[in-house]
What does this fold into?
Amino acid sequence: MPKGKFIVFEGGEKSGKSTQIELLKKYLETKNFQVILTREPGSKLSTITQSIREIILNNKNTNLTARAELLLFLADRSQHVAEIVQPALEQGKIVLCDRFDGSTFAYQGAARHLDLAEIKSMNNWAKYGLNPDLVLYLDIRPEQALERSRGEKHDRLDAENSDFHEAVRAAYLRQAQENKNWFTLSAIGSIEDIFQNIKKEIDKIL
It folds into this structure.
């Protein structure tokens, strides 16, 4: 059985990842692919990772340190890859994942100012050396995201200040330039127009 494909969606808050990943799942299923939809942190397919997600995003955990936050994300990723992602790929399925290690490098590396070289080493160990076949990065400026989220409740990371989210976006843009498996799309525009661009990239690797 051929190995499956691992496709990751990355982007800042309110970039539309959830909408586009659902559209892509439906599109791939019309082509008779077996598709697994998952996320980090806290895949809905794993009770262990869901428990970790609750700790990470709980607004009450204001004293969670940057290093502890990183270790929680890596623990989530290690369990996620071993329990969900790798078995699905070995079965020839397509795995669509809402966030992966690009988020770690942006949020904990750039925005939390942790050592990126150390993070990459720890991350590679935690994820069993697994890399996505394609990363679709939906780019949005923090002020545009804020307009989309007015009146909504924010989790612990959403609620960070504008400097934090500017650092996250800058780190994403650097990764998109440095990695050949990344493709950048503007998150501004109609849902259908954005999805048409996503389909073009997906069709290239399938």
In short: The chain has one domain: 5-205.
